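Lab notes, practical 5.
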Amino acid sequence: MLQYKEICGALHLHTTFSDGGVDYPAMIKTAQVLNLDFIVVTDHMTLQGLQSGYEGFHDTLAVLCGYEHNDRNNRNHYLAMGVNRVFTDATEPQTYIDAVKGNGGIGFLAHPAEKRNYMAAFPAYPWTTWEIDRFDGIEIWNQFSDWVEQLRTWKSVIRLCFPRRFIKRAPQELLKKWDELNVSRYVSGVGGVDAHTMTYKKGLFTFKVFPIKVELKGIRTHLYIPENQTDNDFDNYKKTILNSLKNGHSFISNFRRGDASGSVFTLVTKNGTMYPPGNFVYDSPPVALQVSIPKTAEIRLIIDNIVVKTACAREASFDSIASGVYRIEVHRKDSVWMYSNPFRIFKV
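Output from the prediction step:
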């Protein structure tokens, strides 16, 4: 049996300690109302939330305080988690990647495929230095990027009023890069909200774009953690969350397309052992990849960035497992609902 349970949370959040539009208490209260299990706040170049004592349990909500690092040109943003200091002297990507790891933390390349160049108010901050190593993963789906890159003309005003409706999918070129990176080593993927809760003012008119409650009802990251994990010790719980993020024991969903809680992505080996997505050494050769989701949708089996099989169903089983980087995508209503993290299968 799969000895894991699922928890659901939101990553890449900003508060008024940097360029966010809500403070920690408002962020925490909203996450609690939405029944999230955890949030990871990553304000720009500051750990003021950690220093102010916000990290820890707030009733049943686990709040983790990380930060978002950038280089001297404000590019190559890196989501640092599990660290106790900001590495202000690290200005080159490999330097701060190594500094975070040396401090016992983990890190993810933030919004690496941003490419818009038509909106001065919202410039792109892509990852441009790929001659790097030892990062733990990639933010493959950034909610803010997905939305803002569709704001191109005056007709886009409807996207300001109904932002979640237009969150569609991760950039295909980034998914291709992710699959290629996973050939040589495991690279985990996360979904980020990139919450800023902006207020737009024009004369007497004031309009809040993406209120925090709306932002937290978008891109979510679901973690598989050990079934016997308890939440009576925050330090232990934090380590478990960071370990699951680092090792890809997770999947990503867009809540706008439906509540994905309860979804199961499982690799079954010849011995009958069931593994969730992630970085594992399997106990015997894999024989099947099984999927169970809450609602009927198009389930796609991706091998080495190629759609190999599809099934319109709530459950699917794909056998004849050969070598390759396997992922599952779930599509619903012309948009992506879920991305699983990869299963790296390389048979000797």
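Observations recorded by the TA: The helical segments are 24-33, 48-51, 93-102, 143-148, 157-161, 172-184, 212-215, 234-246. Residues 172-184 form the longest helix (13 residues).
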